[in-house]
Amino acid sequence: MERKRADIIADELEGLIFDGTFGDGQRLDEVQLSERFDVSRTPVREALQRLSQSGLVDQLPRRGVFVRQPGPIELIEMFEVMAELEATSARLAASRMSDEALSELRAINARCDAAVEAQDTDGNYRENEQFHAFLYQQSGNRFLEQECLRLQRRLQPFRRAQLRARGRLRQSKVEHAQIVAALHDGDGDTAANLIRAHVAVQGEKFYHLISSLKPAAE
Amino acid sequence: MERKRADIIADELEGLIFDGTFGDGQRLDEVQLSERFDVSRTPVREALQRLSQSGLVDQLPRRGVFVRQPGPIELIEMFEVMAELEATSARLAASRMSDEALSELRAINARCDAAVEAQDTDGNYRENEQFHAFLYQQSGNRFLEQECLRLQRRLQPFRRAQLRARGRLRQSKVEHAQIVAALHDGDGDTAANLIRAHVAVQGEKFYHLISSLKPAAE
DNA sequence: ACCAGATTTCTTGTATACAAAAATATTGAC
DNA sequence: GTCAATATTTTTGTATACAAGAAATCTGGT
Predict the structure, then answer these.
(1) Residues with pLDDT less than 70, chain B
(2) Protein CB footprint (7 Å) on chain C nucleotides
(3) Of A4, A61, A143, which is closest to B3 when you measure between CB atoms?
(4) A32 and A107, same structural domain?
(5) Which of B3, B45, B88 sits opposite A84 (nearest CB)?
(6) CB atoms < 10 A from the CB of A79, how many?
(7) Spatial contact of A79 and A199, defined as CB atoms under 8 Å apart
(8) How far apart are CA B150 and CA B164, in angstroms?
(9) Which of A110, B53, B177, B216 has minimal Cβ neighbours within 10 Å of its Cβ?
(10) pLDDT digits over A198-209, tens only?
(11) Does residue B11 share a domain with residue B96?
């Protein structure tokens, strides 16, 4: 059993916001939700508070909570920050990671490549996440690791959306290989620059994706 | 009136944790706190949840919440991340900030220097915070700005503690001047490196401060 | 018909009541 | 006296009840 009802509800709501079931600006009614999840308002309120702190909803006092989907500009900004945090991870990892860790990274990357070859989108996504998470860990800075994971989680749905962009997978594979090489050489600055570009490009791709869709939506 | 009781309590508790009234590992009893603030358990619980998300307390299911003061290692880690985020701010600001903004920055820095000369510790602290906050803003990345402010707030009590270190103020003044100069030149990389060192040194100073105190405490 | 003020309804924020789980105390066997 | 099993107490998590603020509706005047 997961810890508390409030936590389950928070995760559930997070998913519903991520997958767009609750659109931007939509009000989340406490009683409606409590009926939906068949609990009282108390755990629902706790869950909503959590989402509010995560920035997924805005909580206006005495007014209610409203879904707050990041717009294209904010997304670019978030990817920009993510790129910097990951770059820092890589730079630190380059000087701190052991030979065993490097082997482990290669192994993860190999699984990632294999998934690409097998057209296994889900598998590739998982291993790719692993690749990045492993780098956070190897930065040797636990706090940095936590912050990276937090932001990665937040950007997850958007990453996933643009993963299908044509040719992105091949390109990503090449970039990963370059990153591993830089880490092998202990060249922190190169690794940092590579990762920065690798992550930032996702934000840009997503931006273009959005822009091309926006006119159609109106 | 501040938004809700829960918010007031959260801020109050935050202060009590920051100033050390509640030490590391101490359990925060819901009923005790509700009596102390003369409210029911409900707003207290909401406040505790907020602190839990901010990382100021650990919340063990069905066990209670416990104060979680960062140890020296974690502090260094946090300062390291802060340094990177600020470095990014500076780098972006160097290419994005206008001439008017640069003037404004100079003005803030002048007030900061004046406070140093006047031995006005509090004033200097405020203006110094302003200086940094202004740079976050000038990064042109709102998300980055928010993240910087969040972490700055978290590290506030520790910054303050080591601010009195002998000669630090003078040194800090010089560093600020260098940073302004780099921004004037639009030299983002130099500005980033300067800021990174400027912030990271605080973490190191604090580490040494702690280390020298630790033996005495035992 | 339209607007201002009052009234009602609805929703959030807080208090209290209850349930379940963990910590503590108690009792009994060896 | 010590340990273990059980009973009691505490404390957290959840449900419900109540209060107060905001939105919506109604009413009367122009």
Answers:
(1) 1-2, 162-165, 210-211, 213-218
(2) 11-17, 21-23
(3) A61
(4) no
(5) B88
(6) 24
(7) yes
(8) 23
(9) B216
(10) 998 877 777 777
(11) no
